[in-house]
Amino acid sequence: MASTELKQYSLAQVAEHNKPTDVWMVIHDKVYDVTKFLAEHPGGEEVLIEYAGKEATAEFDDVGHSSDAKEQMKQFLVGELIEADRKKKAATGLTINKRVALIAGSAAAIGAGLALIFKASSKK
Ligand code: HEM
Questions:
Q1: Where does the Cytochrome b5 heme-binding domain lie (predicted)?
Q2: From atom 36 of ligand 1, which residue's Cα is the shortest distance away?
Q3: Which ligand 1 atom sits nearest the alpha carbon of residue 66?
Q4: Closest by alpha carbon to 6, among 35, 37, 28, 23?
């Protein structure tokens, strides 16, 4: 797998790169060193510095970055987050499980409701 070739970093290690002269950040569990990109970022260097050493996935996605931007960021990839620190993924997994549970629960409730209606109407 390609991802196993990437260097593994913890959030604590990424957090050490939190100065305007040394900016790392986490986007979708990947670790980026955007220090050399600061001055070129069309969205300005301030936002990148603000997220120096931090998780910036939600903010990156909120901007609705173009596919060009996503292509460009590959140049700054230095590694990926260690499995234990990938909170976002675990949370998404839970959300999907919850959704499935909700749908299954609703289906059961509708089924039970229909059964009651049938029972009631067959008594008449
Ligand atoms: C490696 C990481 C990043 C790359 C390569 C990147 C690249 C780009 C590019 C190419 C644009 C121009 C518009 C587009 O093509 O979508 C842009 C705009 C922008 N970016 Fe980023 N970006 C990165 C990270 C971030 C992060 C972490 C934030 C916020 C915390 C951010 C905030 C913005 C904003 C606010 C704009 C301006 C949008 C506008 O003016 O409409 N970017 N970025």
A1: 6-82
A2: 43
A3: 16
A4: 28
Q: Which domain holds residue 58?
A: 7-89
pLDDT tens digits, 40-78: 999 999 999 999 999 999 999 999 999 999 999 999 999
CA of 63 to the centre of ligand 1 (A): 7
Number of domains the chain is built from: 1
Reported ipTM: the value is: 0.95
- Tell me how far CA of residue 49 lies from CA of 23, 37, 110, 113, 124, in angstroms: 7, 11, 51, 56, 72
**Is residue 34, in this structure, part of any structural domain at all?**
yes
Give the Å distance between the CA of 112 and the centre of ligand 1: 50
Q: Is residue 121 part of a domain?
A: no
pTM of the entire structure?
Answer: 0.76
